[in-house]
Fold each of these.
Amino acid sequence: MDWINAVLQGVLLGGQYALLACGLSLIFGVMRIVNLAHGVLAVASAYLAYWLVQQTGMPAFLTIVIVIPVLAAVGYAIQRGLFNPALRHGELSPLLVSFGLAVIGANLLQEIFTADSRKISIGTLSTASVELVGLRLGVFSLITLVVAVGVIVGLQLYLSHTRIGRAMRATKDDPEAATLMGIDERHMYALATAIAIGTVALAGVFLGMSTQFSPTYGDLVLIFAFEAVIIGGLGSLWGTLLGGLVLGVAQTVGAQIDPAYGVLAGHLVFLVVLLFRPQGLLPKAVVA
Amino acid sequence: MSPTTTLASQDLASKDLKVVRGGWPSLAGGGVLAAIVVFLAAAPWFVFSPGDVTNLVTLFALIILGTTWNLMAGYGGLVSIGQQAYIGAGGYGVIKLADVVGLPIPVAVVAAGVVCAALAIPTSFLLFRLVGGYFAIGTWVVAEVFKLVTQELPGFGGGSGLSLTAFQGVDRVTRIATVYYLALVLAVLVVLATYVLMRSRVGLGLTAIRDDSVAAASLGVAVRRSQRLVYVAASGGAGLAGALIAVNGLRVSPDSMFSVQYTAFMIFIVVIGGLGTIEGPILGAVIFFALQQLLDSYGTWYLVALGAVAIAVVLLAPRGLWGLAARGRYEVFPVGHTVYPQGSPQGAQSVDFD
């Protein structure tokens, strides 16, 4: 029963990882940029929500109404101001620029909020649970998983059925041809980043409500999100969901063996996937 | 004889052209560098305090880190953000080799570098399945695995780490001098070895990979093999630097030795100095070291500033400060060739070949 419980808890944890990873997957899918500032942006979102709750006393869930638009605007500005110019210098430059951003972000957060750990309080919801055939499932974790699936379904529908989504995929496939069709490539890239960072903001607020975070927590977020993307398969949002779940299960099952082995087990599963199935579990199953 | 020279001397009217590699300006620059090395070798006797000498070891370690990271990223096109795996392995390795195996410190430091290079070979087969940014984060995952495994291994001190005991009973001056000269010699050797490598046939291939890896592959450059070579060499270099940091600081802990902060330092050094040049990382290391000494009291703000400067350099001066200063025309370590029409050796029509 302990093992079934570990797997189930892992699936719930995986919902959080999938939510954190889908922005990374989208930015890579559209622009081939690996955004090393991904984790810092998630943690910055958590801090923004924390600050809003402290300042205004607003309910924690309501902060996403402010945090998501603010971070999406930041994403748009980063793409227009930094990543687009960097793309002109080749593929290494955006990587280096995003690394610079990550260093700036983590140290600014430390300067503003100190290195102390914080958590966004959600009252009794953090301990509320439902019982399912003798297993206790956290209500908040269940909500996170549902939101993760919702975000991924929403992104898929948006990319495949809207005018902007089609333009985005066209830009991804062939930027020059898309430009000839009257699509503004720079704007498309910036919109994609804005949407991606918007999902990061949502994920960051959920992260801040579920766990203790500090300015350097972004490192772990980036690594876990990245592992979810690779395990699932590059360029596939459904793959990212599956990758998040596999990573979550690997960590909780590893921790069941020995509490010290949780994170290590996740890394090892990632390396095993890399060794035997480098294209990931669901490579490019769905266009994204 | 490199293909560039062959092309210039056979296909063009060879009697009208003169192909030069380096020349007196490079010799002069090399002479200045040699003089600086001689000064640094003599300096502990009359200029620096023991504290300065210990600090300078950090500078030499940074030069090794910058030079080898540049070899891998600048020439090989492999942006790793996980070289702290080998910095940590080198640091722990040297302590084990000196304290448990009983090797003399200089031998232990070099052996730690060799161990790290050997560790990099199997790792490369795993990581080379990823390209670009995904390679980058993959290297970081490997570094985390190294760190977590080191914490769990019996006899490695868990989360609190190890102390070096081989220096016990050695007086402070001898200890500091040993580490200082070891670091100076290793830094000079690493830079010279990089220079010799870049002048070789392999180096020519690497320069081509730096400029366009697809075109290089189509011209018969063994891209994968060259990249593996520089990854292994850079990991050995990171191991040497880690070993020096460990014998200089006398203790290691997982969080300090396997810190991603080292990667931030390496990227700043190479990007600010000049990616894809031999001179750039040396200049970058000196600038970074000077800023670190000057701005230490500003705490995290100085890292914020460094991040901003690195972004500005990537966007506005992608060849770094050395690239801005030398404009691709001047090399202290001449790797490229310059072709002059005969009779006007300083003529405006000269053509540069990297």
Amino acid sequence: MSLNDYINYTIEDFILDENFVRWVRNPQDDSAALWHKVLSIYPEKSEQISKARQVILASYNAPESISSAEIRKEVEKFLDQTLYADDEKPAFLNISRYKIRTSRKKIFQRSAVIAAMLLSAFFIHYYFGNQALFPDSISVSIPGKTNNLAETYNNTVSPMQLRLPDGTDVLLSPGSSLKYPSRFEAERRVFLEGEANFSVIHQNTPFLVITGEMVTRVLGTRFTVRAYANEEQNSVKVQSGKVSVYSTARLADSTFQREVKGLILTANQEGLFEKKEYHFSKTLVARPEPVKKIPAYQETEYSEVPLSEILARLEDQFGITIQYNKNSLKPCRITAVFSDETLYEQLDILCKIASVSYQIVDGQIIISGEGCHG
Amino acid sequence: MIEVQQLWEDYRHGDTYALARIMEMYYADLFHWGMRIHNDKEFVKDCLQDVFVNLHRIQHKSSKVENVKSYLMVIVKRSLIQELEKQKVFRQMQWPEENEPAIEFAIDFRLIKEEEDYHNITKLNYLVNNLPIRQKEIIYLRFYQDLSFDQISEVMQLGKQSVYNLIQKAIKNLKSNWVTLWLLITTFISHS
């Protein structure tokens, strides 16, 4: 559209022009320059523009009060309802096809946060009275799937490297044991007591780590499951990929009632399961690692950089969410040099400079405080 | 836009996660839309849940869609109304303006500049709120939902020309009430 088209613009045209509405709603919009230009070339349009503007200002709708947390909950609920119905169907094949495609398309991958996010795992809980469900009882409830199990027990003092028949690498912690079949069938199931780190080879069939009271289900990702029988807490730490945590037990019994709400875990998040209270919670791992490859040692120098910009960078680098009040942090400009500081060390420094504080809530970082003035 | 299109195609080819992503993207807007049709938060949330679960169910039968957002708005409205009809049978509920969204416009005070005339905008707000419901709907779809012409005509089930006529009518309605007002006003732009 050329500039002289606007000479014939009526109030209606302005009102129906997407760019125009956007500009009125947000004077900093990209199209601002265009409208200033139109005004300077056609001053006679100013009345129509003014009227159109006022109509827009007089026709405002406040957003409905629904938080992003609520929305996330609804999306999780949706996945909860649909994915389990899919479990044994070929839908998973399609999902994995999708993942392969997204890895080729970087931009799309970024935009499809949830899609990639949920590609990973489900915890499934078993609760038959007070009795935990161990491998033997699994084989009772799912006959014919646990034949020919090989068991590896790590009685050394250092982690033991294993390679499973599908190529998945396992680092088995001392004092832990892993049972797995010599050949995987439709589903890849392994039985873990203790702790192990998995780098699951991506395949069309899900990979299940079955521990005392939970099942971690993934298609391909890196994570650590810790489930010692004598510990009150089970945990799953995610290194890459994203994991969704569910508590249904349809694996064993399709009529089983859901008892615990699910979680979604992304990289650097940790899901904790309190066995006694039968309760899930989410936090960040003790030492978050960058999810993006960066040179081993690289100095980052900030000079009068807005804090929000640095936070956005950290979010991107560590694949985590940082929440803060945009307005109160607006005046904060940071001058600092970082090299090999951990995420928490960087946050400590940044928060000190900006005189705010942060806490970890629900696997996210929340920054609060007045913020710097002026 | 292109991204949504791609997600929709992925959904059609069996990817539930793509559908979940679409749900997440549009949830706030669809919720707002749903609340205009029936002001009951839990009811609307349940309905949205049903809509997406059903989309999942018909995944392999679903068709290509040009405008995902307006398509979703149409089915959300339809499904809300169906659900309301059901309840009406059982509970004999009644509400005015059968099936039409209830839209109330407020004034966007955040954006009003000092030199602009509050009275004028207040008056305009009153006028906009008193337009016939269909005209209000069009303004809502354009301003709040940020729908294009094509999408508006899809949601309102009107031809493109009718949409344009309707908006003309709305402006004309406003204008006739404006005339006296405008004599008093100098525009904010000539000041700046």
